[in-house]
Amino acid sequence: MNDLERIATLAALQVRLAPRPDRRPNLPSPRIMDALGGVCRAILLVAAMPSALTPSQKELDNVAARKRLERDDTGDRDCVLQLLLFETAYADPLATDAQLSGLARDIRRRFRAVLVSAANANDPAVQDGLRQFSPILARISRLQGAGVALPASLFKLLDIPEGEGFAVFARGWIGSERIAPIERQLTALEDEAAQPLRAAKIAEEARLAQELAAQRAQNEQEAARKRAELERAEAEQARARAERARKDRIESLQSAIARANEDLESEYTIARISRDRPPYSRDRQASIDRILARRAQLEAKLRELQGVSADPPAPMPVIAAAPATTEQPAAGSCRIGAPCPVIELTLFCRTRQQLNAVLSQRPGRDRKQVLSTLTASGDCRQVRAGEAFSWADPIIVIQPQGEEAAELAPGTLADGSSGFLLKDGILPRTDAAR
């Protein structure tokens, strides 16, 4: 048999050995017993064994499993297994009478020592005698399985007569005076054998309880350590998130302040291009004041995030147009064909048409929008005081739409960009031009 067949057979063996609900033996059908010529005595013995155990007997069962007469030298278990197979064969419609008769003869020959006739199996006297003897046999087998040394008088009871002598042996236990002394002797042996087992069990339970408590304490410590690590990690992550958010906010404020500075510089550049000098026109001054107020708010928030003192900072230098001067440059200080220093913030474009487009817009938002577009494309840029400009050709005059004529100086910046620069950026204005 393979493993699955063996497991299924053992399960069927337990079912076949189990007694009926009324604790009577679960005998095969009369037709099976008649065809087989008897029944395995193990079915009678197991049905008569007690189901309830004393505390000492339970302790012994923890050391050795109940034998239930599964002794290899008696053939009781093999007989029941063969009975199961005979019942299967008997129910097979393809089995012939000759086959079944031959199988029954072979079973009777092989298991004659453990077969009981149908008449004896159904004899109430045999079943009553077994109800007296089977509990004693079970107790003796349990002690033997637990390794307890048995007196010869008890050990001899394991040698059950074979064949039909089994029925005579069973009837001999009805009302026997031997039962009470044997049971007292068995009880003393069980209690004596179970006492150290019980003590060892108590000690083992105490040891296991101690180990369990230690393991539980260790688990709690480990859990507390992990919780602490998790809390530290969460706190660190929260701090990192807060710091990251703070840095992002600082960068955002710094970018906003830089844009405000660019807007302010653009306002001053437009004022310079428009020849608007302090005090500026009302609209331009209002725009400059709004930018300064916004920048002050952003700087205050930035100082708060950076933890800087809330004392008002020193006022930022205003990038204003250089005041007009009547002084003339020294002879030969700036001339065509020579490098000229830029003397004040001014505007440079690659073509004069681009400068004309900027100056032809109405001062304010329109002019600023055109200038921003040309600056973004790289066609125009603001040139600060101190940068170098190589004046190449004579002054060119353009006439912006709706504005005064403007003078442009052709030339090249220090980075090699060629274009046109407002002349006022390299030559001071004359009184007539102011």
What are the salient characteristics of this protein?
seven-stranded antiparallel sheet, two-stranded antiparallel ribbon, 57% helix, coiled coil, TolA protein, 434 residues, rod-shaped, alpha+beta
Notes on the protein architecture:
The chain has 14 helices and nine strands. By secondary structure, it is of the alpha+beta class. Residues 66-73 and 312-332 have low confidence and may be disordered.
Work out the helix count: 14
Reported for the largest beta sheet, the result is: 7 strands, antiparallel
Q: Gyration radius, to the nearest Å?
A: 58 Å
Model regions low in confidence, pLDDT < 50 over at least 5 residues:
66-73, 312-332
Quote the average pLDDT.
Answer: 83
The span between the termini is 120 Å
Oligomerization state = single chain
Q: Helical amount among residues, as a percent range?
A: 55-70%
Strand residue content: 5-15%
Q: Tally the beta strands.
A: 9
Class computed from helices, strands and strand pairing = alpha+beta
Protein name: TolA protein
Coiled coil: 200-250
Organism: Xanthobacter agilis
Keywords: Coiled coil
Gist of the model:
It comes from Xanthobacter agilis. This protein is α+β, with helices and mostly antiparallel strands.
